[in-house]
Automatic annotation (TrEMBL):
Na(+) binds at residues 53, 55-56, 60, 295, 327, 404, 407-408. GO terms for molecular function: metal ion binding; serotonin binding; serotonin:sodium:chloride symporter activity. Its main location: membrane. This is Transporter. One of its GO terms (biological process) is amino acid transport. It comes from the Eukaryota. It is a multi-pass membrane protein. The lineage of its organism: Eukaryota, Metazoa, Chordata, Craniata, Vertebrata. Disulfide bonds join 159-168. It holds the Pfam family SNF. It comes from Cyprinus carpio carpio. GO terms for cellular component: neuron projection; plasma membrane; presynapse. NCBIfam families: Na_transp (NF037979).
């Protein structure tokens, strides 16, 4: 890993400066002196596309429309924008500035900010591993669909396949179709019985065998990931020119096609029609806060890693604003792609869009769990299958899904790579290819349980407990450590040394008070209103919930463990302890 020279001065465990600006000079912190040995982005656009590609992922593009119509349609944009302006964007800006100034990954950066919080870096890496265990499996599902799309008649169009049951009911192009509580669409049975084979598993206690088809798909995904990351940002920066831009081309094609479908306008009206009374519900504001947080993605170590390869004087403020706007606008525009199709499906079934979108009673468009992720694998593929030129639209749709997922995987694994290699430069600096290979192998092996017949249950468990609350709590501690322990004046002066001007009062207030409160609001709300964990017709047993809490604790526990270690092994009192 590139060698980083640094000027070390005597300090404290957190070395907080005095409350005024003079504290920055009177109590300096380690200053990173840039050297030519650290990798740099070949072009500014490489960095911007990498950040956009990470932030705009499967959940970002397809979860927003689902959350939007659930929480008041056009009215939801008010809490969404407010949460973005006062919570999401300031945290996004903070991480870009931290990474660019200190030029190091999520672990070693705490040597320069507040060493006692170094456990945050280890926790971030563990969470990134959990994400890689299930997220790439979702991309493997998309690759399976992509391969299956190369046929004149898409396999999820009819009920005449080996995996279909007597409950399979196809309503497209037919009149007077009887739909009961037991009816299943061809697309749903293709997904649940042919792709997942979830009917061969009774739950987490019996997940069954590994599906070799999915394992082969996952192997191909990780092969692409390895050869995109093995040489660093100079190779990944080139790959994102395809993976980050292609989804926008496909979205435009699908939006134009959706707009020409009969009934499309009904879906758009339903999408944007504001329900102002929803703004009185606390859950709407919680959903808005959670959506913008997971959409922009602070706390995963990715923004720290990607910005650490920027020139020292790069305008990270402008980058934060531009990429955040692109991210949010992409979410909004994707709603038109989704709801034009929902309007079309409502027209075909001769029902209201609300009945299609809200999964009322017998309508199973979003599966029994009403999980927006399955919109990708049931609702939209079903609509595509009944369009003219279905093979073409299916192919480009799943290419878009694969590229959206790959971008986020690139960012998540680069966060681990940068963090670990910066922490152990003497050992790993000249062994990046081997280290990346080892990491990819670990991620592949860790994903095997998600490839079984009951793998969808494992994906749900990891998604719910491995990432959710732990990452929000970690970002809360990160924002608190930077603003209150490192010091907002010191951090502002860091930005001034890079950009030539100090952040305005708005940003300082957000970093010190509003953004931490924004995170605390999400944490408290999720703890006070726990939701039952279900998937399809399966309700997760109590023992699996306990396992989930253990998974969540396995990442977060390194923060207090490292604090205790630091306090015990650092000589002197808290005020006298030298920085390690």
């Amino acid at each position: 890993m590139p060698h980083q020279e640094q000027v070390m001065v005597h300090g404290n465990l957190c070395a907080p400066g005095p409350p005024n600006n003079a504290g920055y000079n009177s109590n300096p912190v380690p200053v990173i002196i840039q050297t030519e040995s650290r990798d740099k982005w070949s072009k500014k656009m490489d960095f911007l596309l990498s950040v956009i590609g990470f932030a705009v992922d499967l959940g970002n593009v397809w979860r927003f429309p689902y959350i939007c119509y659930q929480n008041g349609g056009g009215a939801f944009l008010i809490p969404y924008v407010l949460m973005a302006v006062f919570g999401g964007v300031p945290l996004f800006y903070m991480e870009l500035a931290l990474g660019q100034f200190h030029r190091t990954g999520a672990i070693s950066i705490w040597k320069h900010i507040c060493p006692i919080f170094k456990g945050i870096g280890f926790a971030i890496c563990i969470i990134a591993l959990y994400v890689s265990f299930y997220y790439n499996t979702i991309i493997a599902w998309a690759l399976f669909y992509f391969y299956s799309s190369f046929s004149s008649t898409l396999p999820w169009t009819s009920c005449d396949n080996a995996w279909n049951t007597e409950n399979c009911t196809n309503y497209f192009g037919k009149d007077n179709v009887t739909w009961t509580n037991y009816s299943r669409s061809p697309a749903e049975e293709f997904y649940t019985r042919n792709v997942l084979a979830v009917h061969e598993s009774s739950g987490l206690g019996d997940v069954g065998y590994i599906r070799w088809q999915l394992m082969l798909c996952l192997f191909l995904i990780f092969t692409i990931v390895y050869f995109s990351l093995w040489k660093g940002v100079k190779t990944s920066g080139k790959v994102v020119w395809v993976t980050a831009t292609l989804p926008y081309v496909v979205l435009l094609i699908l939006m134009i096609r959706g707009a020409t479908l009969p009934g499309a306008w009904k879906g758009v009206v339903f999408y944007l029609n504001p329900k102002w009374e929803k703004l009185k519900e606390t859950s709407v504001w919680v959903d808005a806060a959670a959506q913008i947080f997971f959409s922009l993605g602070p706390g995963f170590g990715v923004l720290l890693a990607l910005s650490s390869y920027n020139p020292f004087n790069n305008n990270c403020y402008r980058d934060a604003i531009v990429t955040s706007l692109v991210n949010c606008l992409t979410s909004f525009v994707s709603g038109f792609v989704i709801f034009t199709v929902l309007g079309y499906m409502a027209e075909q079934r001769n029902v209201n869009v609300e009945d299609v979108a809200r999964d009322k009673g017998e309508l199973s468009f979003f599966c029994a769990a009403s999980n927006p992720k399955y919109l990708l694998f049931i609702t939209y593929p079903e609509a595509i299958a009944n369009m003219v030129g279905s093979t073409f639209f299916a192919v480009i749709f799943f290419v878009m899904m694969i590229t959206l997922g790959l971008d986020s995987t690139f960012g998540g694994l680069e966060a681990i790579i940068t963090a670990v290699m910066d922490e152990y430069p003497d050992t790993l600096s000249h062994r990046r290819e081997l280290f990346v290979l080892g990491l990819v192998v670990v991620c592949f092996l860790g994903s095997l349980s998600t490839l079984t017949n009951g793998g969808a249950y494992v994906v749900k468990l990891l998604e719910e407990f491995g990432v959710g609350s732990p990452i929000i709590a970690i970002v809360f501690l990160e924002a608190t450590a930077v603003s209150w322990f490192y010091g907002i004046n010191r951090f502002s002066n860091d930005i001034k040394s890079m950009l030539g001007y100090t952040p305005g009062l708005f940003w300082k207030v957000c970093w010190v008070a509003i953004s931490p409160a924004f995170l605390a609001y999400i944490i408290i709300s999720s703890l006070l209103n726990p939701q039952p964990l279900t998937l399809f017709d399966y309700e997760f047993p109590d023992w699996s919930i306990t396992v989930g809490y253990i998974i969540g604790a396995s990442s977060f526990m390194w923060i207090p463990i490292y604090m205790v270690y630091k306090l015990v092994w650092t000589p002197g009192s808290l005020k006298q302890a030298p920085k390690m």
